[in-house]
């Protein structure tokens, strides 16, 4: 069966009927007034695309369903006296807005156009409909360059002195039809088909073909929609909102998509078709006006909205048309909403008894929660919006406008906040982007260089503000209305909304963050509805989730904040900072040591400092696990840069003021210099090659635990070995760690457990996880490094260099550093989980890469069966929410699978 | 069954009985005179190691078998009047020479020592045997520091004025026994056990325990021998070669292990035990002397040697003892031999009808063939050997001795060949090692820094020449005999044999290479036997192998050489060199281009040059496939070094002679500079981001093919896209390549196929091979990069920094760059082969990493089911030989599995 009448489908048949077709069928079966029509399945499309042939049965099935439509409407397709007209629209499983083709008014011919004019009593309407068919059919089905039609229309308007299309009368449009038919003949080599069924069949094929239009292919590549799905085709009897003053067209929402409040929201345009609304030729009126224009239709629409919301149990958006006082539903779907509205609506629907709390949880997501947590411009403050662009990277940034990287870096170095303003950014602007509080561009979308790099940096960015005229050379830009902003003027940009403001707008903390930090009581009477909604859904999530959530934190303050945010421990304490600042001199001493005594002295100087660091951390996380990763980066990261030092030494030599210490250091830096430090002497390799380094750290950890225990605390520390590629590395470093711990136990009497585990951050660790698990108490997936090695690119180098181009061309759907690459990196994680647990059933499994706080990735980690995720403190609530959602959605899937 | 009498086992039971036990059983069943004894299985050992308890049944089984030995020898263990003595020796499945323990003379007590003296009629012999038991038992079983025994022996010798052990008479030895017993009591807190069975049981446990001695653990880690195997224990009735002038001990080979010639080879030492031979106290005589000393035993031995060789169908080595005119066989195994002898013996055995040609092929290997292919010192030239060390990295190198890196670099820069001489090398010596022709050290073995790095570089190295006294400060070394070599003196080192010569020894090409290059006719009467053997076995290998062998070659000359060596095409043509030298200026122009016109001009200037390169290559490989890899390295590799250029620009500024071109270049170099270039903008990423670059290369390839076809040739070119991580990259670059090829076809009329495929050199490519295969005509595994990314280390950085330490500590068994890491990288290869072929059954699969020429790796690639390997020209014969062996051995395995 390749064709389904609307009464034969339902909303769950999106695979076969596409989203639009499935919802049209659902509305039909609800008894709502949907124009008669049918849907040609995606399967028919797939067969056509595979074989190049329309399936043999399709013709007869279309004939049969077309006859039913004709019967329902009491007209025949293209009947010269009173023609049935149909639209042919694409409708894939996943929305691909504007990517594929539509042909309206199929059924008009030289003869039936007159019948339509007569029946409608409107000559102009009929000829306008016909010229629209010729234009759409010519472009879409016959592949004629649309400029030919546009040029002819423009010429006619000039000729007639008509400023707008609507100023052309019936005679002019009839003339245009003649011109269009000539264009069709000249460009396609044949006449426009006068057989209505031939029109219909050709339009269906054209919609099939449009699945493989270049823009559709790129869009699918970007959105990771499978190229194999194909599109359904909806053939629907045309109804006309432009059939006179008692006709019209509109959109409606079953509740306010911004606040979630119930009510009547939407717009209406009398005597118009959908495309007129899009073209913005006339202004729409609020939907409530319809009550005065056509009370009967308005009441019917309100009834239908109530029905749909009750049925879909969610906010729906609706497209409708009134043809001569009769209401027709053309489309519905679950409506988009703002992040705040999503939380409010979800809890409202629970209060209204429409959905369960689990369902409410599934209606919001971590991306929305994260958006709500960014600082925002104070809503009560005065502000002057001067432009609006793409909300490329969320946040609220205020600073002086600068127009080049050098100025950005220079001003920032004096403590000035700056916003970097560029037409578009390139890799050359990287330092300027780092120096700026925010980035503003006039070109490029969410996949532009500016957007991609800013998101990678977590920096506020508004891009593609096309109304700005930026003059970099003169250091100024002009906004609509003649507003001029020069270098040094303060501007404010909202990366969450895309707004650009003149002057400083005060920034306030998000109330959601203040709630998480315990500053707002969600139970208080004056608490915002949003905070109450978030609080309620967080409780649901915490009750449902199976994944633990820890934080990545290196310092006691970070740990305390993470704990407030709900972290159940530290999944990653990086010990790098313990070698920075003042302590660099010990690393220099370690590197320059010429004998064991010097080396030992350098290490011993570090011991009390490190022990104090760990004591603070264990105090802040008392009673909760704290995973300490031993030193990971190469030692030269703690030394001066090779190029800088080389220049310094060369210049000193030139000036005759040589510095022996600098020269000695330069030799060491040269010796330790690596071509590819990320793939060099770091992690466990350092631990095995630099005598005493890891032992020092393990001693500091164990002694800190002992000290905390003596002080009455409950330290739960874990030692984590980074960058292990083979079990032998782990065995050797573990042996050394166990010896050190045993020694500390003996001297302090400390008896608590100190598990020793490893990062899994190299493909080889994942591939040999079964062997490695035998020497590990836990695995923590370092998905940042695992992404870098699995793909063979270093984030520092490639994000700026080519990620924008890759996203633009659809090589990536999303940066693999933002959201875990399930097919590649995820496969390694899955394999390591399975084989690690098989070798050691009590193996504890977590993730401590940034993906631990990414909503989509959290679902993957839930499904992979990890015990916990660990992420930055700020992301802890997001992870908690998504972990709850993952559990709920997995249960729902299991439920539907078992039904 | 935990104990096997020798008559119950056979040579195929190595898993259970160990190598020594299995061969003793085999000889026993052949009716050869093996002293009676039995083998305790590895299973008993494993149980003991797992549980800490000797398995319950073992005691009774030992009792039973011991009784059989007693019956056979007509003596009882430790019988005071005429004691049976036994040895207790370890014997694992894989030889672990010197790693585990042995106890001889079990059964001697204060009473039975007198019985032994009486029976042997030799007081001194009995007391010497007893003191040896006390010493071995004390050290091995009771864990007493051996220095105690050595000190006591030395004191006694001083006391008696006896220069050697043998100068001590029976009385002195009896006194020594008393001293030793005191040491045992003092150190172990108990008396030496006077119950012979207690001695036996304790010795068995001690041998079990020695499986887990630290040195054994490290050895197994290095050799990748599983820690789970355990050792067997052989209990054998003692026979004494030191029982008088009609006794003795010796070793024998069934043919000459150096040449393979049949005859009597070996050494004999009268009135001595095995350990005396090892101690080198007296000189052995050639085995043929035995004919004069003991004709009967000699004839019997020759008979046995013939029996063994016929039975094992290979060269055997033998240990034997004659006790009072009676010959006993103590051990046999298939004997070691030189590389040249391996080839000669294998073909001789075929000629003698002992083995088939397939078996002969399995008796040689690619490591041996590679050894035979290195240039060698002319055998006919005079030479003065001054020392001998470890043959760490093969080859023959001649040069002036230098003692530090700075001098090595300086002299080399003036065209001088140098040999770097160091006590040992460190990462600081890297530049010197690069500059030297060869490396000579006095410390460290095959896993020392010098050895590992030299092998990685393919550079000749002799290390651990402990007889050299190297004085780096004075720039000279002294060899035995007072030979002194100072900086600048010429020396010659042979990395294949470990020899060090004074002065220049002429180097000649290997006759095997001259044969491969067609300069020697193996059929000629005067051809060396070695060349004839190699030729014959290569024919067998070529007839049997399923893997094709191609070469990695970039230039026409290389291609021609590879073809002579038997390459069936080029598996990897790197196009990097086409951007080097003079052509760098085009790359600079490309990088500095400020508009499309400048970029296009730079690319177009390269087109005719590249086309000519490819034409030459296709001509050299006419009729055979040539796989061209599009540009892989990052563009900044073709530009000056950042640090050098920064210093130059800074100094020019300081001197007031600024160079605008240098400054412009510096900005470009800074912009393109990458933290980790290996993981940066390279490979297909360059192709997708630098407009026109890959199109230029594809055009050059296609036009070259067209030109060759016009000239009457048969070009078979393939285009390979490097560094693909996701199918989208391949699709996009393939689309562009196909467009370019179509354009060339249209303009030239060329119609031959040009397959487009990809490297698989990133873990993600392997993990998503099923998807990638749908866009690829072939895969070529780039196992160098795949090793780097799977392990997360860059060869440049880590080989010098920590590979030596890793090999030493057994983290690696062998460098994963030398031999493919089957557990990690190999798993990815296997997965990609399986899923790539499943998605596309006609997918062509090859490997073009250096592993393609590594003998062990070739077997893996055969088993993985690849179509071909590609390696350097020099390695092509090695790969051919091993591909044949892989096929033969796989068939043999399949045969034995089906039996």
TrEMBL record, chains A, B:
Residues 54-283, 291-343 form the Pyruvate phosphate dikinase AMP/ATP-binding domain. Residues 416-498 form the PEP-utilising enzyme mobile domain. Residues 533-884 form the PEP-utilising enzyme C-terminal domain. Keywords: ATP-binding, Kinase, Magnesium, Metal-binding, Nucleotide-binding, Pyruvate, Transferase. Coiled coil: none annotated. Signal peptide: none annotated. The active site is at residues 449, 848. Its EC number is 2.7.9.1. Substrate binds at residues 574, 629, 761, 782-785. One of its GO terms (molecular function) is pyruvate, phosphate dikinase activity. Mg(2+) binds at residues 761, 785. Belongs to the PEP-utilizing enzyme family. This is Pyruvate, phosphate dikinase. It comes from Actinopolymorpha singaporensis. The lineage of its organism: Bacteria, Bacillati, Actinomycetota, Actinomycetes, Propionibacteriales.
